[in-house]
Design brief:
binds pyridoxal-5'-phosphate, globular, 407 residues, alpha/beta, TIM Barrel
Amino acid sequence: MNNIQHHDIKKLALDYGTPLYVYSKQSIEDNYTKLRDTFMKYYPHTRIHFSVKANSNLHILKQFNDMGCGADCSSPYEVMLAKHAGFSDDRIIYTGNYESVSDFSSLTDYKVKVNLDDITSFSRMHSVYNPEVISFRINPGIGKGGYEGITTGGTDAKFGVPYEKALYGYQLAKEKGYKRFGIHMMTGSNNLEPYYFAQVVEKLMMIAGNIFDKIGSAPEYVDIGGGFGIPYEDDDEVLDIELTAKLVAEVFEEKCAKYGFGKPSLLLEPGRYLVGNAGWLITKVTGVKHSYKHFVGVDAGMSTLIRPALYGAKHRTYVYGKDVPEWNVNLCGQICENSDIFAKNVFMPPVSEGDLLILRDVGAYGFTMASNYNNRPRPAEVIIDNDNVRLIRRREKFEDFLRLYES
Ligand SMILES: Cc1ncc(COP(=O)(O)O)c(C=O)c1O
């Protein structure tokens, strides 16, 4: 699984305080190697861009850069962070959403690939910035995600260009002198079914076939986004990456041959798959209330990990040193919102103040979605590297809160 479990959770809590994000460097490497090697076995021109929004800790970005991975960035500051971590421009792709002119003008120092969210985005970009390679994010009319909030394709999704209109975007770009193109989609996150990936790639390739035939060129890359899911609960399926890669590569190569695309790069932009299971959250019980039911309160909250409050997401939770689940509890954070609940009506061992809890699989969309709501400091992050524990971001202090105010 990962090497966090071999560490003394109590010592980590004592040394670094709680709540605390703990990552496993080895698990990140294992996840990346598995995905890369499996896809490259079936299609050698596969390239992986880690989705920075999933976990943007600079040290983790540096690890991805050292492993030869690219970066998928969703804002100009993510591009700058990726540059800071050492990624070269040719391994960075920027995909915004309702991008502003100023978003594009902050990219002018770089030569990153730009993936446009709409045809109107093209005009805003073209007024200030002319990258060498562009693509449009296609909404293929279908989407699928683990929750509604992470379904990013289909007629209700706010992302991308409807496929019926996308041709016009490419024609416009060609008219303005652009010659090098890719094509992109991202239709949902946390998918566990291999056949869904093949189905949606087939759809994208048919859309691409039509577009590139009409504009008389071929895409340099086809970016199929991320969305590779992980199990969050014991009875969740594990995504069969071998089958996914095989099915995707088969349909991809078949359509490349049919439309005369040659061998474009197949880009993947995974976030969750690469870091999700590599992060745990350690939190401490601060209060136990026997009200209409058992309420267990901890020193983490929706400001630390918002996924349960935002999507109803579940994270397996363990009590350090106790394993007989006798209480039916609501597990709550300290934030002043009734939705600040990690889990409702779950069975856990009886706990008392000071007990430590471990929430699993928080490495993706955990810390990156943390906030200062209720003026709570964002937690520290540590990484386990072989047998060593390294602080990779300190806990925020009150002085950090005052830093940005004008006197
Ligand atoms: C454009 C884009 N690429 C990649 C990702 C990463 O998705 P995941 O973490 O499901 O792999 C996202 C997530 O929302 C995204 O919006």
